[in-house]
Amino acid sequence: MTDFISLFQYTFFQNALMASVLISILAAMIGTYIVSRKIVFISGGITHASFGGIGIAYFLGLNPFLGAALFAILTSTSIEWISNKGKVREDSAIAILWSLGMAVGIIFVFMTPGYTPNLISFLFGSILSVGKSDIIIMLIITLATAIFFLVWYRPIIYSAFDPEFSKINGIHVTFFRYTMAILVALAIVISIRAMGIILVLSLFTIPQSTAMLFTNSFNRIIPLSILWGLLGSLSGLFIANHFNIPSGAAIIFMLTIQFLIIKALVVAVELKKQKMR
Q1: What's the distance, CA 125 to chain centroid?
Q2: In which region does residue 126 sit, left (phi positive, over 0), alpha (psi from -120 to 50) or beta (all else)?
Q3: What does each of the 277 residues of the chain score in pLDDT, given as a tens digit?
Q4: Which of 7, 189, 264, 271 falls between 20 and 30 A from 143, CA-CA?
Q5: In the chain, what are the domain boundaries?
Q6: How many CB atoms lie within 10 A of CB 69?
Q7: CB 65 within 8 A of CB 50
């Protein structure tokens, strides 16, 4: 425990801690939207398709996360367009874009002249290597998302769950649906820096699933998701330091264990109530 507390004096751990806080807040807002709309599979498609942007950016000598962001936004808006137009089945479109993004990324990475970049950091992330510039970007996206939710909370909810009713009442459904698609894409990409492509989706679903054990109210799920996300992140960082294992994997492991324990307690309480009736 003493060794863990001593880590707080190091800049890299302070950055990791700040990243955990910001990502927990961002994931709580975006993840609640994703889980409530039941579009987790869409988010998985965006996550993996963004690898195509990473590969192209490497090939062109650009920042790989800039490429991932552009590719993720293109994918998310394309999926939103497909779901609205209905020309292709949504699940089929997601599977196609998911596979295409991964294939394009692998092709361009191995076509890149010189050395083959290390893909492990993109696949599994490294929250302990997050720098100040990453923190600033996370802060900007988190603040922008929070402001968007605070100002247009009701139109976002109405557009997400009852678009036809929203249109009748004069809400610009297309604007809110596409803006949320872009915010989902940006949130996922910035979280890849810390958690990696393979693990990041769990950060947008597990804390929300834990929160939904207590409430189904959208505006209550968000703060509870922040709480469980922070607890899972901090305990994950502690476990990672103690056992010298990857921090991203440790965080997801602790979030899952946290969910299973709370789920078991909730079930036990429900069974006890039934016996008392």
Answers
A1: 13
A2: beta
A3: 566 677 778 888 888 889 999 999 999 999 999 888 877 877 788 888 898 998 899 888 888 889 999 999 998 888 888 777 766 676 777 788 888 888 998 898 888 887 656 667 777 777 888 889 989 999 999 999 999 999 999 999 888 888 888 888 888 888 998 999 999 999 999 988 788 887 888 889 999 999 999 998 888 999 999 999 999 998 998 888 888 888 888 999 999 999 999 999 999 988 888 887 7
A4: 7
A5: 2-198
A6: 24
A7: no
Query: Cα–Cα distance between 84 and 49 in angstroms, integer?
Result: 20
pLDDT score, position 97:
83
Give pTM, 2 decimals: 0.88
- Complete DSSP assignment for the chain: -HHHHHGGGSHHHHHHHHHHHHHHHHHHHHHHHHHHHT-HHHHHHHHHHHHHHHHHHHHHTS-HHHHHHHHHHHHHHHHHHHHHH-SS-HHHHHHHHHHHHHHHHHHHHHHSSSSPP--HHHHH--GGG--HHHHHHHHHHHHHHHHHHHHSHHHHHHHHH-HHHHHHTT--HHHHHHHHHHHHHHHHHHHHHHH-TTTHHHHTTHHHHHHTTT---HHHHHHHHHHHHHHHHHHHHHHHHHHT--HHHHHHHHHHHHHHHHHHHHHHHHHHHHHH-
Cα–Cα distance, 20 to 26 (Å, whole number): 10
Residues 2-198: name the CATH superfamily: ABC transporter involved in vitamin B12 uptake, BtuC (1.10.3470.10)
